[in-house]
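Summary for the steering committee. One of the milestones for this cycle was to obtain a three-dimensional model of the protein with alpha-L-rhamnopyranose bound, which we needed before selecting residues for the alanine scan. The sequence and ligand used are listed below.
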Amino acid sequence: MKFAHKRATAVAAAAVAAALALSGCADTGSTGGGSSDGGGSDNLSITFLPKSLGNPYFDTSSKGGKAAVEELGGTFAEVGPAESGPDAQVSYINTATQQGVGSLVVSANDPKAICDALNEARDAGVKVVTFDSDTNADCRDLFVNQATADGIAKVQVDLIAEQIGDAGEIAIVSSTANATNQNTWIDKMKELLAADHPNIQLVDVVYGDDDEQISFDKTAAVLQSHPNLKGIVSPTTIGISAAARYLSTSDYKGKVALTGLGTPNQMREYIEDGTVTAFALWNPEDLGYLSAYAAAALINGDITGKEGDTFKAGKLGEYTVGADATVLLGDPYVFNKDNIDDFDF
Ligand code: RAM
């Protein structure tokens, strides 16, 4: 598994920096290059556009993206809306297109709403990489997926089933209603519940919009409307930490289970106080790092997004483009009280 432990990350980063310095490749690079004969360009100006700013998950993915762009001698930028909304990213896409960036690396709040803007960017020569949350496949060059949707759904269903004794009512506290990633995972979770967990009933799906307070309030409301609730699954880092904050000081603490996708730093106190026993995620820093390398490979013309294309992603090694122009980071990882202190993101 390519999971960066905090010490391993630091060691690997130092090794890469040393290698670049030795090979003389650590210059600042050009950012205004046009296309060369092979269809590639040297315009390594790479802009990250998360679902929204101020989310520690995306702060961490951008940290990885920035490290990769710096290793490559390019120019990193991060822009984005304050709140996650279906078309809130359009103006940022248009601005980046006007600026002539080499690539936009986007986590989409909606599969369709930003497509026209992205396709205009692509017509102007910008390579579009989606990561974390995809658009429809015809509006991007490549999707860097954190883990398979089946794997992400299964780890959460397994965790909640184990935590509630495989029986009883559960609810989902999701992010925004249109989020491509959460909606895909929720559909897969429903399939798994129906197939393998006949005694678990999913009674509600509510949306906290990846906003801490809305997620907190929706958690309170869903617990009130379903007095027999045994567990909550929150497949969003903002949702699960807000739900944990609510549960931790309520009478439901220890009675209603909570799991889903969270960052170790946001969940640590709730693991320590017993509100949550286990949750899952991948390493967002690695996801950002891989996405930046994929963007650079598209810009350089090393890959086009064709199945079987390969490229090198620095300390993470070589990756191959799979079906539907998708690159896969790895497997989800489960955090609990025994391992959470090994991680710092
Ligand atoms: C939130 C966002 C992001 C998702 C994580 C798990 O930070 O919704 O898109 O991948 O949770």
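Key point for the committee: Confidence is low (pLDDT under 50) at residues 4-38.
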